[in-house]
Every structure is written in C-alpha cells, then in structure tokens.
Design brief:
alpha/beta; D-Maltodextrin-Binding Protein, domain 2; 2 domains; five-stranded mixed β-sheet; 16 helices; 10 strands; 50% helix; globular
C-alpha cells in the first residue's frame, strides 16, 4: 500500500518525465566555447546576446574567453580549446590548403579606409606619389594589398612611388593625429574615430573592393569553426549563428543598446560612438552565401597576384566549399 507521500513523488516524477519527452524540451543547454578579442566587435555582440539571454532562449550556454591577439584566438581554435572564433577567409583558405578542414560563415564586411587630414588637397590614389603613407598593419595586410592593386591599375606603384611606414593600428592612428603622414590606412574602428575628428576619406575599402570587381561589400571576416564540430551537431551551430544574427539586429536597430555597451566600445566621446555605430551597421552581412563567395573569389585572385605566397601560403585556387550554409539558407 502506497502512502500519500509516495503517490505524490510518483506523480511528480511522471510529470517530469512527460515534460522531458515533450517536443522542444531542452534538458541541458548545449555549450559553445567562443574565443574573442577583448576589444573587438564580437565581444560587444556576445555582451548583447547574453544581456538579452538570447543564448539561453536558444538552449545554448556560451563559454567565452577574451584574448588580446587574433593569433592567440587561432591557436585556441587549432588546439580545439575553442569552438568558434572570428577570422578572415584568407587564413581559413590557408589552413584548408595545409590539411585543415575549417569552415567560414560571413561575420562582417566593415573595413577601414584611406584617410587624409583635415584640409588635405589629396583626392585620388595618383595624388599619393611622393607622399608619406602610414599603414596600420604589415606589408601583407589585406586592405593594403587591395589598395596597392588598385593604385597599380592607375599607374602608381605605392611601394616605390610613396614613402610607406607600417605599424600597429593604434600607433599609426596616433601618428596620423600628429600629422606625421599625408595619408593613413588603418582598421575600421580607428578610421571611424579619425572621421569623427575631422579626417576625410580619400577612399573607402568598400569602394576599393568594388573598383577591383566585387559587386558589393565583401565579408572578409567570418565565424570560423572546424568541420568536425559542425558535423557533430549542426543544429547547435545554426542556433549559435542565429543568436548572433539576433544580436546584430539589436545593434542595427537600437541606439539605446549602443549607449548601454559604450563602456565596452571605449569610443571616448559621443561623436566617435556614433561613427563606430554607423560603420558597424554598414558592415552587417545581408547577402546570400553564393554572392559572398563569388566576390571573395574575385578579390582572392587579386590578393594572390599582389600578395603572393607570403599572404596566401600554398593556396593557389579559391575554395568556395569553405563557406558554411546554415540549414535554413540564411
């Protein structure tokens, strides 16, 4: 004979079993290990996703590690201590050519710009002859290679016809403020801040890409993960990408959200926050995967011709199979 207490426990256990078997029930959240750059846009988006509990609603648990350098992120992914990072498709192509099986999904088409100080008379790439140019990055920075390629089509060999200085983007940007360069090419967040300070755009990288044959802005950066991780649970990958799409949508629509994350953005003032916000929004991917792959292929040929093996390593042909297509087609 059962007691009322025992019957109560039985009913509770039965109810729990029915709930667990119900369609869509989630017994435990699926984990996604993400490595991001502490000062990068992915850190902003992850904050938005977790603040609005988008990860929890999708049945995911984000384990996030913030590292200082892109190289450290790549090491984490290759050593399987991270599931997802953000990197460029040139690196993914190199890794695949070396035997890896990484996948790429468009993250952002936001790119830098070739900037000139207030009052500058420079208007075209041809005007850069005999001028000093600061490049945020090194000689194989992808934006710099594309600028060089476009200038060469106009008869200007920038590495020969101009005075080039390479350096870390923060340093190059500060030297630009001190008017040490006639023009500066630096990362999008630094060029956005310079724009807020009165610097002018001599040529935006989106315009460079289009002049070189792309139909629209190209997402050079993407979410990168291993094929085996996607193969093990494609639903988890697609839910992760959908969560991040929702976070991007919030940042694309809500100025209040930008004010909330302003301590993370570290813009310094309202004008810089606004230019960073606008540049970020312009780079949110909106095109089909096939269109992204086609334009990436067009730019790859130019990057390979100008940057050579130092940039592309053993890669000789474009591999469109690296582009990951979610099951919903987004």
């Amino acid at each position: 004979m059962t007691t009322p207490h025992a019957r109560g426990l039985f009913r509770w256990a039965l109810a729990a079993l029915v709930l667990a078997m119900a369609p869509g029930a989630v017994l435990a959240a699926d984990k996604v290990r993400i490595v991001a750059q502490r000062t990068g846009t992915l850190a902003w988006e992850l904050d938005v996703a977790q603040h609005h509990r988008l990860d929890q609603k999708a049945g995911l648990t984000f384990e996030t590690v913030m590292l200082a350098s892109p190289m450290a992120q790549k090491v984490a992914l290759k050593s399987a201590t991270a599931d997802v990072i953000v990197a460029d498709w040139i690196w993914v192509a190199r890794e695949r050519a070396l035997g890896g099986n990484l996948l790429f999904h468009p993250y952002s088409s936001t790119a830098g710009a070739l900037m000139v100080p207030p009052g500058s008379t420079l208007k075209t790439l041809a005007d850069l002859r005999d001028r000093s140019i600061g490049v945020g990055g090194d000689a194989i920075d992808k934006s710099w290679i594309l600028v060089r390629a476009l200038a060469a089509r106009q008869g200007v060999v920038l590495t020969r016809d101009a005075r080039i200085s390479y350096g870390a983007p923060p340093l190059i940007t500060e030297k630009a403020r001190q008017r040490e360069f006639d023009a500066v090419l630096t990362y999008w967040n630094f060029s956005a801040k310079l724009r807020a300070e009165g610097f002018k755009v001599l040529m935006d990288m989106v315009d460079v890409e289009k002049a070189l044959g792309a139909a629209d802005a190209v997402s050079m950066l993407g979410y990168v993960f291993d094929h085996s991780w996607a193969q093990a649970d494609r639903g988890r990958v697609d839910r992760f990408l959908n969560v991040m799409k929702q976070a991007k949508a919030i940042l694309s629509q809500s100025d209040e959200e930008w004010r909330r994350i302003s301590p993370l953005v570290q813009a310094g003032d309202d004008a810089s926050l606004q230019t960073l916000r606008d540049a970020y929004r312009a780079g949110v991917p909106h095109r089909a995967i096939a269109a992204e792959a086609a334009d990436s292929n067009a730019l790859f040929k130019i990057l390979l011709e100008t940057g050579g093996a130092e940039l592309a390593g053993p890669v000789r042909t474009f591999d469109a199979a690296m582009f990951y297509q979610p099951q919903d087609g987004s």
